[in-house]
Amino acid sequence: MFTIASVEKKRISLQKSKVWKCSVCGYVHKGNEPPEECPQCSSSSKEYSELKDKQKLGYDGEKFDVLLINGSSHRGHNTGVLVGLAEKALIRKGVSHRLFNLNELDIQHCWCCYSMRDSACTYPCRNQLDDVPALQEMIVNSRAVIVASPINWNNMSARLKDFLDRLTCLQNLYLLKKEGLTTGKVVGILVNGHEDGGVKTAMDVFLYFQQMGYVLAPFGFAYRTHGAQYNAKTDDDFFKNDDILRKEVEGIVSNVIETMNQDLEIKLRDKIVPVSE
């Protein structure tokens, strides 16, 4: 039986309840806490954020060392473990960095302006409507990039590919006979998944960066897969507790830092002939 007090208590509770949004599928939930499992895509509560007015991503112009990119649709799952390990290693080594989960950002498809005419693909990018222009500026003003991706059908995630496609305006500088802004920067690549395809995924990611003049750090790939014979629900614990993965991620971070400290951007300036498709 409802009483005036109980109705008022429920009204106050609803007023205080928060609005949560799943960063994977966009499902909106109202309550004091996010659901343990998304009813629309089955993601965990880690993928939910309180829904607030979203501000366009900006860049403060400050130079830093490493841009760390989580290219997965799930920021709090397996690829997030790799990124977390990489960030801890960067912090221990006192290396300045910035971390971004692509599923939290507004990243539109590339407009493919260059297919109209080469000179239409400009830097800064003609599309200033989403969060990518700020990331492009960070690419230019960082010394190295570490990219983490899941294996989605023997390839990178669609979110990551959209982001990498949007770097075409930086690659196009070489085709327009302009000074490149990324020659000699360093890249490291982390891959994980529930199936085979780790090396192919890493190479697909690297091809983008080598077209921009990036140098792959020695032993610059690390990948770890959890066999298809295991239930996918066990992946998270496997990656969190795998000593091999931890050591390899820390090794990649160390290799990227050591290569970055060779100052190849400076040493190779005016010595490299751009050969970019």
The gist of it:
The chain has 277 residues and is of the alpha/beta class.
Q: Give the full name of the CATH homologous superfamily of the largest domain.
A: Flavodoxin domain
The helix tally amounts to 9
The percent range for helix content is 25-40%
Query: Rounded to an integer, what's the Rg over CA atoms?
Result: 21 Å
How many domains make up the coordinates?
2
Structural class: alpha/beta
CATH class designation of the largest domain: Alpha Beta
Q: What's the β-strand tally? A: 8
Low-confidence stretches: none
| Mean model confidence by pLDDT | 90
CATH architecture of the largest domain: 3-Layer(aba) Sandwich
Taken in chain order, the helices and strands follow as: HEEEEHEHEHHEHEHHH
Major β-sheet strand ordering: 5-4-6-7-8
**What is the terminal-to-terminal distance?**
73 Å
The largest β sheet comes out as: 5 strands, parallel
| Molecular shape | globular
What percentage of amino acids are in beta strands? Answer: 15-25%
